[in-house]
Fold this sequence. Notes:
Elements: H1 3-9, E1 15-20, E2 38-39, E3 42-43, H2 44-53, E4 58-65, H3 70-75, E5 90-94, H4 99-110, E6 119-122, H5 132-142, E7 149-154, E8 159-162, E9 168-172, E10 178-187, H6 188-200, H7 208-214, E11 220-223, H8 234-248
Amino acid sequence: MTQALADTLLPRKKYWAVIPAAGVGKRMGSKIPKQYLPLAGKTVLEQTLNVFIQHPDISGIVLAVTEGDPYWLDISVNYNQEHNNKDKPVIIAPGGQERCHSVLNALNKLSLYASDNDWALVHDAARPCLTSDDIDQLITTLSNSSAGGLLGLPMADTVKRCDAQQNVLATVDRSDLWRALTPQMFPLKLLKDALTHAIKNNALVTDDASAIELQGLKPKMVEGQPGNIKITHPGDLQLAEQFFANQSS
């Protein structure tokens, strides 16, 4: 049997979106969590979910939310829940104390539905301006990778290192520096084991690639689009509104 024929007989790996959405968004300064702020006629979270719902290669979504989250309950009726057995379910997992705990909870829930070698695309709930093209680029580039990878952007600005009083100490060489974006895409079991190990060792990683790096692996950086902003400050919401206005026109 040729390798090509053997590959066609193997079960097709699926791609699942994992979205931690239990954060409160303190830096946004709003009365409600930033993922529920209004954006182009929906909430930020709904816009983020819809990117994955509309993508043909995504099999389903696991969303980690705080138990009893009233804002999610208000919009959850718009989505197919897991018990409905639809083609692309939105599966709910409990949110955790930190982002890494929420992601791990989501991966544990996903393990009930997916194979160990399926791909998990972990994406920030507050990045609603992700494009289908970026998802395509990530899948195309990483599907034959063993360590996975992430979307990113080469650092374009001059970078300064400062002390606690914000006095400049040095200018940092930016030639090999990248900004980490999401989604970050890894085999399900690999990422689940890496996050379990990181949390057990009190390494509360702020992105998923960091957990993979702690395993001695080298995730691949895939250049994404600069419009994939994370809504953190009020001005970011204005930029996102402009993004959707441009999409509509």
